[in-house]
Amino acid sequence: MSGTLEEIIAQRTKEYRQAAGLSATVLARRAGLSKAMLSKIENAQTSCSLTTLARLAEGLEIPVTALFRGVDVESEAVFTPAGHGAEIVRRGTRIGHRYQLLGALRGVHRRLEPVLVTLTESSEVFPLFQHPGTECLYMLEGVMVYGHGMSSYTLTPGDCLQFDGAGPHGPQRLIELPIRFLSVTAWPG
């Protein structure tokens, strides 16, 4: 929805009042406003103070934030069509190991990093990764043994492993190739 803030508050106020089955007179009384002031609010003819907004919300028995629903807010979204994730090179990238970034927000919204990992060739030595945050692996295809700290887990399709990224972790043995899994890292802070 677009419009001025006053128009959005006007529309939300009227919608909530009507949904509650309240007349303008009853809502004005409940909110401690004059009927004329409520009419100005519902017709977007005045700006509301925080006190007035709080009184309206209380009279309607809704959270004050409900009066702002529909305000256009810039927010970031990342869409990655199937097969088009950015190839990333990281420690451990080698022939037969593909890391595909499925999306990443920037700045303060960088909280999750989803990566599709595909392993098509066996390797003798696997690197151990360590990083801040929490990681979650979801197996899509194949079978592997994955280590975290002193523990080992045999992962098959449908299995999920969540762990603290600060602990040393990584594949220990590739049992059935190809192996594909989704790795989602939740960064701290």
UniProtKB/TrEMBL annotation:
<protein>
    <submittedName>
        <fullName>Transcriptional regulator</fullName>
    </submittedName>
</protein>
<dbReference type="GO" id="GO:0003677">
    <property type="term" value="F:DNA binding"/>
</dbReference>
<dbReference type="Pfam" id="PF13560">
    <property type="entry name" value="HTH_31"/>
</dbReference>
<dbReference type="InterPro" id="IPR014710">
    <property type="entry name" value="RmlC-like_jellyroll"/>
</dbReference>
<feature type="domain" description="HTH cro/C1-type">
    <location>
        <begin position="14"/>
        <end position="67"/>
    </location>
</feature>
<dbReference type="InterPro" id="IPR011051">
    <property type="entry name" value="RmlC_Cupin_sf"/>
</dbReference>
<dbReference type="InterPro" id="IPR013096">
    <property type="entry name" value="Cupin_2"/>
</dbReference>
<dbReference type="Pfam" id="PF07883">
    <property type="entry name" value="Cupin_2"/>
</dbReference>
<dbReference type="GO" id="GO:0005829">
    <property type="term" value="C:cytosol"/>
</dbReference>
<dbReference type="InterPro" id="IPR001387">
    <property type="entry name" value="Cro/C1-type_HTH"/>
</dbReference>
<dbReference type="GO" id="GO:0003700">
    <property type="term" value="F:DNA-binding transcription factor activity"/>
</dbReference>
<dbReference type="InterPro" id="IPR050807">
    <property type="entry name" value="TransReg_Diox_bact_type"/>
</dbReference>
<dbReference type="InterPro" id="IPR010982">
    <property type="entry name" value="Lambda_DNA-bd_dom_sf"/>
</dbReference>
<keyword id="KW-0238">DNA-binding</keyword>
